[in-house]
Amino acid sequence: MSNNELADQTKEEKGAEDMLVDSDYSGAADSKKPKFRPATGFELNNGPSQIRKILVPRNRFTPLKKEWKKIYEPLVNHLNLQVRMNTKSNRVELKTSKYTSDSSSLQKAADFVHAFMLGFNVDDAIAMLRVDDLYIDSFDIKDVKVLEGDHLSRAIGRIAGKNGAVKFAIENASKTRIVLADTSIHILGSFQNIKIAKDAIGSLILGSPPGKVYANLKIISSRMKQRF
């Protein structure tokens, strides 16, 4: 056998080995890949029902009775959920049904009801059902600065302002909604807007005069208008 014939035979054997290795590797890789079955729509309808329970504070019973129609109508008619008020456990119970078509409906509804229980108006809280990037951030005044007695009362007064003027100014400038519940503060809005409101409230807690906070808010609001 000549040298050329020997070289050709060696190449053929080597090519066959490469094909064998490649086929083995591809088969091993395919076996390691996860195999998902095709999506068949929202599977919550076929699976067990999911439930959320939201505790109703004592001071929110009367507003809940007054606004009950505004609360359950969007949950039942638009999100296709089952809603009831359990008077024994003092909780609003939300449950998926066979007509629920969106997997996020239950969590949106729970966030909406929870926002109302924190003290937000129904018309403001219902925005959580329509907009995806709305959140609630809660913190205590003492988390910013430890205050007691009259110092704490004055800090709350600076945040609220006369007839709520300071709070309204912060809400309008930052495009958020704010609830003052004793020493707790709840802010509803987008992530960036919540940060603007928290910075303004933190400055007031630390003792900054409202006039200085007003000036900073005007600068921030003008920048936000230019951005959009």
UniProtKB/TrEMBL annotation:
Provide the primary localization: nucleus
Q: Where is the K Homology domain?
A: 138-206
Mind telling me which InterPro entries this protein's record contains? KH-I_PNO1_first, KH_dom, KH_dom_type_1_sf, KH_PNO1_2nd
Gene3D superfamilies attached here?
K Homology domain, type 1
SUPFAM superfamilies in the record, alphabetically?
A: Eukaryotic type KH-domain (KH-domain type I) (SSF54791)
| Subcellular location(s) of the protein | Nucleus, Nucleolus
Which residue positions does the secretion signal occupy?
none
Q: Where is the composition biased (Basic and acidic residues)?
A: 8-17
For the region Disordered, what residue ranges are annotated?
A: 1-43
Q: Select a single GO molecular function from the record's annotations and give it.
A: RNA binding
Describe the protein's quaternary organization and the partners it interacts with: Component of the small ribosomal subunit, ribosomal RNA processing complex (SSU RRP complex).
Main function: Required for small ribosomal subunit (SSU) synthesis. Has a role in the processing of early nucleolar and late cytoplasmic pre-RNA species.
Q: What is this protein called?
A: Pre-rRNA-processing protein PNO1
